[in-house]
Amino acid sequence: MSDAGVGLRCAGCATVGLDSRYCVSCGRELGYRYIALPDHDRTPCPDCGGIRFGADGQCARCGRPETVPDRLEADLGAVAVLTDRGLVHARNEDAVAVGVLDDMVPGVPTAVVIAVSDGVSSSVRPQVASGTAVRAGVGAGAAALTAGQPATDAVMAGLEAAAQAVSAVDVSGDLAPSCTYVSAIVVHNGTDTEITVANIGDSRAYWLRRESVDGPGNIPAQRLTVDDSLAQALVDAGVLDEGKAMTDPRAHTLIRWLGADSPPKPWADDCVRTMRTTGPGMLLLCSDGLWNYLPTLSALSGQVQGAAPAAAATALAEFALRCGGGDNITTAVAPVPWRPRKDEVR
Known about the structure:
The chain is α+β, with helices and mostly antiparallel strands. The chain has seven helices and 14 strands. It has a single domain (3-336), classed as PPM-type phosphatase domain (Phosphatase 2c, domain 1, 4-Layer Sandwich), CATH 3.60.40.10. 50% of the residues are buried.
């Protein structure tokens, strides 16, 4: 059973704790689909055949390190996700998780909960922090939505759950496992779409135009999050413009992050932002392994215009690899507008 289902309630029998498709109690087919990458429960251990791996990437039975493909990707229709090791790092320290609610509970609109996290390489076991953060964040955010909470409260519930889960990770050594975190809840109301985002650190959320021409509801491309970094602090203080700030060798120094060594409330007071749109466009969540190579809105939009979400995620990752792939690359691309199809694979 997926840990992301904890807290989600079956509309048929009210059982709490669901897998990604069926209620474990009454067997009702649910409107909740979930995936987290890397997925440590997917590939059996080649040494002992064990099927469970811990967040540290080791087989729970024999301790063998897991062999993880360089790239993992999935397309859930409402969102396409991809995470790639890149060309320089020895392992992927990013993580991404998604929960899609398709008419799961009467009165709860179709919604998508997304989280992307980038492990801080200078900390110990950063991949544990990032994987823990996205799983806890998506699970709590989806549970809050099914309980009837508005998106602003649900995204904060996810953020708080992610912070608590990462701070509880066992610390070995002086540097606690730590990571950045960006999340979004996309609520499709039929005539329009509400996008609510929250972040800690320098993983980002963008609204990207899907078409180059102006039209009704075609909101200009924009960055939806503000980095918690030294570069952003220099820009906010008026010391440097964004272009010069990003060339500073300390540009990616974080002033907020998730970890046992972060404050009890590691997020900024204004970390949650909401926009409404009728589209057409795409919501992009990504780690800095992508936006380092595409720092401007026009550059990002140029890579995805006219592309389906999965193709857009692939194009963005391939561009970062061609530019050097100096960091792990993670993208989550959600199309707007979107409505579930009856023939969509679950």
